[in-house]
Design a protein that fits this description.
globular, alpha/beta, 295 residues, 7-stranded mixed β-sheet, 16% strand, 11 helices, 10 strands, Rossmann fold, 3-stranded antiparallel β-sheet
């Protein structure tokens, strides 16, 4: 698993945030290469004296690419647990962190919640673009068929030809904006770059995505679930008008350690909307507020 460790000169506490991207992204979701003063969470965290490790999840970016039907969420959670152990025992840059926090987006949030539930080895969890409970995520989710296609059919990811098998998928260009953005609150240059550097998801990740999402009900550490008001992937348009209603539905089922925040006028990709700095400040303030706790 490839990762980029960024440590400030003077950290506010001995804590590492492990940043987990969603489907069709890599670590750059958290360290966006365009206008980083607005869109890079890594830059924000560093300026606020917090250490981060932005990783490419297995199968993505510069990490290894196993057969796409073997790269399950369960396998990824196990790999992530090894990374958490390394962070605590000095396996990263010979520094042992007292606190480890998982910060995820979308599928990365599902992974963060599953790892925290199954291994109980982190101090806090931040989920963005994911309800945490009752999210509607299913094993072998049929929504994948509409929004994604095999890598071999998309010239935008032609560099992966011969490196991945037919179980690696990438988003259809016409579905990017409806799935991920509120156009009125997003820079067209960001959306265009998103399409140019897009990544993958594997059939194995989809095969047990629902099981991993359901694990959120067993989290026992402070958890922040942050959603865009108009995140079309997090509310049921047949019965709900926004994620405000989805949060109202999910809250009674969530563990007592959960806190919800909804960002007005924002879609699924919270980091890639113009209001990203607002979200970053809220995450930072929330982590400050729970930093005295322990698993």
């Amino acid at each position: 698993m490839a990762g980029w460790l960024t440590q400030p000169e003077a950290a506010k506490r001995n804590e590492l945030q492990i940043l987990l991207h969603g489907a069709s992204y890599d670590h750059r979701y958290w360290d966006w290469p365009f206008a980083p003063q607005n869109y890079s969470y890594v830059r924000f965290a560093t300026e606020n004296h917090c250490a981060t490790l932005a990783v490419d999840r297995i199968g993505s970016g510069m990490s290894s690419r196993p057969p796409g039907r073997e790269n399950t969420m369960r396998a990824q959670a196990r790999a992530l647990s090894h990374l958490v152990e390394a962070a605590r025992t000095g396996g990263l840059a010979a520094h042992a962190f007292d606190r480890v926090v998982l910060v995820g987006h979308s599928l990365g949030s599902i992974l963060a919640g599953a790892e925290a539930a199954w291994y109980a080895d982190v101090d806090a969890v931040v989920m963005t673009g994911h309800l945490g409970v009752d999210s509607g995520a299913k094993n072998n989710d049929a929504r994948l068929d509409a929004g994604f296609r095999p890598v071999a059919q998309d010239p935008a990811v032609g560099h992966l030809t011969g490196l991945v098998d037919d179980a690696y998928l990438t988003p259809n260009p016409e579905h990017r904006v409806p799935m991920f953005y509120v156009p009125a609150n997003a820079d067209p240059e960001v959306i265009a770059l998103d399409e140019r550097i897009k990544g993958v998801i594997t059939l194995a990740e989809v095969s047990d995505m629902g099981t991993a999402a359901d694990a959120g009900e067993s989290i026992r550490v402070p958890t922040l679930a942050m959603l865009g008001e108009l995140d079309a992937m997090q509310f049921d348009p047949a019965t709900e008008k926004s994620t405000y209603e989805a949060v109202k539905r999910a809250t009674p089922q969530a563990p007592t350690c959960f806190e919800y925040v909804v960002l007005a006028g924002v879609g699924h990709n919270i980091n890639l909307h113009r209001d990203a700095p607002v979200a970053y400040r809220m995450i930072g303030e929330w982590l400050d507020s729970v930093s005295e706790g322990s698993p």
